[in-house]
Amino acid sequence: MEQHHDLIRIEEVTKRFGQLVAVDDVSATIRENEFFALLGPSGCGKTTLLRLLAGLETPDAGRLLLEGRDLVGVRPWKRPLNMMFQSYALFPHMNVYDNVAYGLRQEGKGHAEIERRVGDILALVRLVGFGQRRPHQLSGGERQRVALARALVKRPKVLLLDEPLAALDRKLRVEMQLELKRLQHSIGITFLIVTHDQEEALVMADRVAVMDRGRILQVATPDELYETPNSRFVAAFIGESTIFRGRLEIRGAESAVVSDRARWRVAPAAPGQAGLGDGAAASIIVRPERLRLERLEAPAARDGRGTAASGLHNRVEGEVTDVAYFGATRKYVLALSDGTVALARVQVGQSGDDLAPGMHVTATWAIDHGVLVADEGVPPAPPSASPGSAPPAADP
Amino acid sequence: MPRSLFSPGRWLGAHLLLVFLFLYLPIVVLIVLSFNESGLPTAWTGFSTRWYESVATNEKILGAAATTIFIATMSTIIATAIGTLLALGLERLTNNALLDGLVFIPGIIPDIVLAIALLSFYNLVFTGVLGLKLGAWSVILAHVVFNITFVTAIVRTRLRHFDISIEEASLDLGANEVTTFRKVTLPVILPGVIAAALVAFTLSVDEFVVAFFTAGTTITFPIQVYSMIRFGVTPEINAIATVVVIVSFVLVLASQRLNPEQA
Predict the structure, then answer these.
(1) ipTM score of the complex?
(2) Residue A158 and residue A32 share a domain
(3) CB A100 within 8 A of CB A146
């Protein structure tokens, strides 16, 4: 995907609904042939951004460029983008064939071409023989594929997908994630998907833009988002993490995040990368699989004692409060001696896979594995031992 | 399962039967009498369709019926078009309870009040200022006034379950607003619109008070019936009433089938 040129440029776009700023001065670039995801909690403005691109909303400020041409002011039916709606929005009074053919008929295509293209696309989404069915005679998954076919048959430059899998049950959703990705690769159309489900975004997208309260916080590949989140919000929203909060202290080559009860070293380059200076409010983010656990025979120290930064590692004592078993891994919730609640994930068969609630442990992580971010003052979501991290509620 | 005397099902069933008898017994009697050879309400002298034949050859009744069908058709077309668009506007553009209420008032204020208001207004504006004579056209306008109310109410029940995103999908797929209305919005709400039109037609056909006040010298079907009845209930009236009952019944049933949410 690397050498493709920019297809869509969103430049300083703002959209207000009365007092509410749904999209707040957003800029982003979507490349040709890319699978791009807008990820964020309900009400973060991601669907509004999609509707702005489709022409169903008009921006209050900014430009939306498609191949250099400004889309603002172009009516929706003249834009070479097609949208797949969250509700699927199939025409209830038409059968599957007529639903899919609708867009081509609007283009004034000939009967033979319409028949051929509708036939091809129904084969692509594996709905051969469904042409005469009405939407209400279809299952959720079948309706979803009709909606997809109806948008794709127009061969848009960009396919906009608004929570395309939200209405499906979990098993079908996971299947369709891979199916959509396969489809996008095989037909070579740029996909722009809106989702509140981090797993969906990480599995499918080449790049993900994380949104919160009308702004894009970070645009990155799924790996980068997970390994180097640029804010506490992104770290908390993507995957799970332990967040150590404090104030940044820079003493020559040595930097640390300092709280009342502890002092955590960070990698020497980290403050520069995070753009943070001495004294800034900062957090260290540590992913659960980066914490190494060792059992302690004696009770853990309280009040921050038993914490230490030695060499390239930070070490802290704590107590196991909860355990969840996931087959290949075991997840622990820990109460650390500095007051932080931590999450650790241990491969079954590795050391530390046999801990039980009430046991005392030391947790260790390499300073390279702690990501330093600015502390925006938004409290992190409380960690839990439930499978995965619960996605926020769907957009209304 | 044997049901006891005090089972709720039994009492509700009896209640249902009595209510329906109360509602329909007089009509059944009327229908039966319309086939009575003698024409007298007191003595059954045999089955006959002579009163229907008599009605079918009565120029005055046929003329009045034609006038009424014309008025009902015109007022239905106008009220359905206006009421449907009004329903769309109210559903989409406003959230104003006062506007909603104002739409429904012409349908629920007593006919006599509406009739007097319309008569005064027509006399003032059309007769007084423009010098026009009241006639079929003024009845059509008057019926449009209350029929808009019913059409709007019925179409709105249909719109309440309308998924606006299908219109957006149509726009997105390359259809402009006009095509979208023609190909998507109207076909989806059409059952509701037809149901509304049937109700409007029925109301207009049966309507007496407003027509009586605003018809000038024009004779509508209910006015004709009224003028006949002043000289006593003739057997012909029974036959006419039977026809009206059956037509109304069919129209209302058809409208309910089309729009099950309403009613």
Answers:
(1) 0.80
(2) yes
(3) yes
